[in-house]
């Protein structure tokens, strides 16, 4: 039971997200979840959901969200540059 998987999708609020899972064979179940800092409070729930589907092994789960910007927002830091003459 050694493996790697990844997937991309869209969260319920429309935010693009990606998940990567790496597993290594172990007799017990160990789940490590890496979430963005803003979502750290969801780690126990994510671990609970994963443990409901996995009986054993060491899993490293990395959940990434892509930052969304407004359609008319300037590129990052562009508004900080001095005006050109």
Low-confidence stretches: none
Provide the helix percentage: 10-25%
Morphology: elongated
Largest sheet: 4 strands, mixed
Mean pLDDT: 83
Distance between the termini: 62 Å
Question: What is the radius of gyration?
Answer: 18 Å
Structural class: mainly beta
- The ordered H/E elements are EEEHE
Strand content: 35-45%
Number of domains in the coordinates? Answer: 1
Count of DSSP strands: 4
| Spatial order of the strands forming the largest sheet | 1-2-4-3
Task: Quickly count the helices.
Answer: 1
For this entry, give a set of tags.
single chain; mainly beta; 11% helix
Brief digest:
This protein is mainly beta and 85 residues long. It has 1 helix and 4 strands, in the order βββαβ.
What does this protein structure show overall?
The chain is mostly beta strands and 85 residues long. The protein has one domain (3-66). 11% of the residues lie in helices and 38% in strands. It contains one helix and four strands, in the order E-E-E-H-E. It has one helix at residues 43-51; strands at residues 3-10, 16-24, 29-34, 57-65. The protein has a four-stranded mixed sheet with strand order 1-2-4-3, covered by helices on one side. It is elongated, with a radius of gyration of 18 Å. The mean pLDDT is 83.
């Amino acid at each position: 039971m050694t493996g790697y998987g990844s997937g991309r999708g869209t969260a319920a609020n429309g935010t693009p997200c990606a998940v990567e899972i790496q597993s290594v064979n172990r007799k017990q179940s160990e789940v490590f979840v890496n979430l963005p800092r803003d979502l750290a409070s969801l780690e126990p729930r994510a671990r609970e959901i994963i443990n409901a589907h996995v009986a054993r092994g060491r899993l490293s789960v990395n959940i990434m969200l892509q930052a969304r910007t407004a359609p008319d927002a300037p590129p990052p830091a562009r508004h900080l540059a001095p005006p050109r003459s």
